[in-house]
Design goal:
Layout lengths: L1 H28 L2 H12 L4 E4 L6 H4 L14 E2 L2 H11 L3 E7 L12 E8 L3 E8 L1
Parallel strand pairs: 1-2, 1-3
Antiparallel strand pairs: 3-5, 4-5
């Protein structure tokens, strides 16, 4: 009988973990909610740039909007100026940028854009860039 009780307790604990803990880790590991939030704010047609990072799961949620290299890979931008130049070349006045949260503090220093942090998942943030 103690074995049945231990098995039942283990089952209950696993079910509770799956219900309440696992989704939180999945949200922090994915950019899905960031892109959904940005889209619901009226940015669903904007290109998505990657600054100082590459988010491979953005492929699923931003399909067709991710800025890529000539060989089809996600393009990693290493500076705000690179993104601004690419936006100007494409004729875009606004875009979305995925970046590590730590870099969001630097964005107000750039005078060529108006940055708005839409959200973050603890690791990455999604920021709307509007050219000035």
């Amino acid at each position: 009988m103690p074995l049945v009780g231990a098995a039942f307790t283990t089952l209950v604990v696993v079910c509770l973990l799956i219900q309440f803990v696992v989704p939180k880790f999945a949200e922090e590991d994915s950019v899905k909610m960031l892109i959904v939030k940005a889209d619901s704010d009226g940015n669903s047609g904007d290109k998505i740039f990657s600054l100082h990072t590459i988010s491979h799961n953005a492929e699923f949620y931003g399909s067709g909007r991710i800025v890529r290299t000539d060989d089809g890979q996600q393009r990693r931008f290493n500076s705000v100026q690179e993104i601004v130049d690419e936006m100007k070349t494409a004729g875009a006045s606004k875009s979305l940028v995925l970046m590590p949260v730590a870099y969001t503090k630097e964005m107000p220093a750039y005078k060529m854009i108006e940055p708005t942090v839409i959200g973050d998942n603890g690791e990455l943030a999604i920021v709307r860039f509007v050219l000035k």
